[in-house]
Amino acid sequence: MRKNTGKVLSMILAMAMVVSSFSATFVSASTQEVVGNNARVDEASGQDEYKVISDKYNEIELISDLDNAFSVQTMDREDLDDIEYVSFSKVSGDSLVKVVRDDDDNRNLVLKKNASGTETIRINFKGTYTDDNTDREVTARGSIDVDITAYAEGDVVLAPVDAEDYLNGMPDDITLGAVNDSGMDLALYMAKVGSWNSDGTSNAEWVRIDPYQDLDEDEEPEDVDFAGYFKLSSDKNFVLEDDEVKDSGWTHYDEDEDAINLAFKWNDSEGDNDWAKVFNTKLEVYAPKVEVDENGPSYDSDKKGEKIRVSVGVEKKWRVSGDAEIDKLGARTLIGINGGNLSFDSDDKYSDYENDVKVVTGYDIVVDSGNITVNGGTIGGIDAADAEGTVSVHVENATVNGDINVEGTDGLGDITAGEDARVNGTLKKAANIVLEDGATVSDVDADASVLTMNGATVTGNVKTANFNADDNDEYNNTVNGDIKADEFHVEASDGSFTAGGSMIATTDDAEYEFTGNNISVNTLDADYYATTVNFDETNMVIAVTNANSFNTDFNLINESDVTVNGSARLASMEVEEDSVLRFAADAIVEDMSGDGMVVAQAGQLHINSGISDVMLKLNNLAIGSTAFTASTDAVDENDFNAVGYSLTKEAASSTVDRFVVDAVSFAGLAFDKEFTTIAQGYSDTITLAAYPTGTNAPADARVMWELDGNDDYFNVVVDPNTNVATINVTGYNADDKTANTATIRAYLVDEDGFELEGYVAATCKVTAVAQPEVRGTLKADTTSYTLPVGGIYDIQFSVTGVDATPVVTDSRTGSVFQLTNLGGNKYRVTGVNEGTAYVVATVGDTRVSVAITVDNDATQGGEKGNNVSEIR
After folding, report:
1. pTM (two decimals)
2. Closest C-alpha to 391, from 412, 376, 365
3. Which of 59, 379, 580, 791 could crosslink 110 through cysteines, CB 3.0-4.6 Å?
4. At 639, is the secondary structure helix, strand, or coil?
């Protein structure tokens, strides 16, 4: 059995007939079977949604041989063995499916006879692997959710007329029309199981059928609205047969086409033009009686079947054919009634153009063909999903309150959001997306696109193939959520780039490139793919997750200084001269090389394969302690340049070598902490010392301090007697996160102020965060009080805004006064001995204190009032 080290399972589906990514959960792989992380699904393998027509007399196979239908993987993308279907359960909906065994004893998921409705099921399975650490076989269980929609053969639906009658597909939903639509055509479609395929699936057929004519026996068809074929709750916004103007036809049932023709009345005037009014009414139609036998479904239009009731009408929507421009004139957003360009002067009036334009303020734009340019105003979404050809959309100085989709019939189009563009929706299905010059959009969900940001903000998440953030000295680039892509290219030297969430790789051999010092990224998520991360003249702090497969490479050039926060599991590290790679916590790496410096925590670094040339600086060194460990014979003492120490190599086990510090020598300066995070309005301290500890600097050397950061937000005060620096954070920039970072550096200089070569400098990276939100208050009714021995005084504490009870203590534990709880948050102090002590109430990190002085010669009394601390 093949071994692998993955602990958490994921899944790749290999099944036919299944529509995008699955929603799934998986169990953590260990000697116990406990619920763990979400399953991984290969989205290219199938679909997560079945839409099928069931047979009245036969079950229909959806997934064959469940034991072999799934390729199960660990989260680090290693296959599991002995995959076995376990069970399935209903999450919600109807009961549409079951599992049956065939003649070969395979278990198959089948659609029940005559099934109709919707159901979400959870398919459960298990697989095994061998744990490298224990050499034991581990069984892990997982599940995946699948959505199913089934129509029973003979079901009848009302849908828009389709030229091919939805052959091998499913009927479209009925949507409301645009104000410039002439009407809509609807038909009744009956579900039928079509021809069967060799794989056991069937083709869907939808037969267009006549409605039942709902007429009383003594009525003639011409005396009943719409000949009894259908009824409308209100017909005032439809063209009727008796109307004088019927340019677009009239509302009736077309017996030749088996279709309901709805003609909208254009009774809403703007200028010389008329358009349909926005309205919504109910249409009611009876399906004929349907019967299903071994030969399939049949209907009798003379017998009444199921009543179908739907909404029809017109909404705030404008349909475009051909290139069109949208712009603002005064308070109105306008579009040419025949498309084309608009050209307004500042002193123009709407009345000058009202015969040639349509007011589309707040309207959705439906594109049948052509490109859309929005140069001003406010509209709804832009939908070109069914447009002929390819469509491009350009937005600037305007607001789009909806999604933009440019998936035309001939392929994906382009989207550009420029100066002062605001898209309160998602950019979807585009080949190229450009966000620039201060544009703001909600989300990007276009996994096949190339996205370029040049001074823009995405308030949510991004999904694209190629993500680019170009440097812009006027506008910053910001993505508040996650970014998923195959490639990442970020440059920020004059402007800044901020990623508030994770930058997540979506393919093997994914590549990250960072250039410039003004980059703030929360997390790089390799998602267990082989990835390469290149840093060029970059100073940044990041965390790296889901890289446990040791296939994420780091390359640092041009004086880059990169700090990896949290545990690190990385592959090859190439650190060029004058560049620094820092590990803030434990790190396991395959190998490291180059003429630059690697800084790690003593005893928390392990090297699997080798180290070459790098300068290795270790924090918290002590003679006799472990410097780092390595796989047996992977590293020798002379493979690298030790900074301020020498080592002895010894065997820690049969597979691990340990390197022990046997001597230290002065190599430079170091702070007691290399990273600190401080909230606005707060401060922290750092202490400077010789590196390694216990060594001494040259007698004639002096220390120079410098702050690399925005002095509007950071202030540093150094006490030269103690070498303690107090860092004050005086501001916070919510719009530009890179402004909230600074680096404090201390280094040795000679008597002329020139930096001494050959010694390392001390550095501390500081991150400012927003002042914590006030959640409530902790209050005492007294600030201070004086009483004699034997005297008593009661103090009342109170908490607002949070559900908490303060912990109340005596700072000198009964030596000055006795503290007694009187119930609730009321406490009594009784003088015991002369002196001063404090009654301290605490909620979390928030406290208030009341000074109590016991003095027999003083007058009893004190300072009452609001003694308040904010709970954050």
Report:
1. 0.81
2. 412
3. 59
4. helix
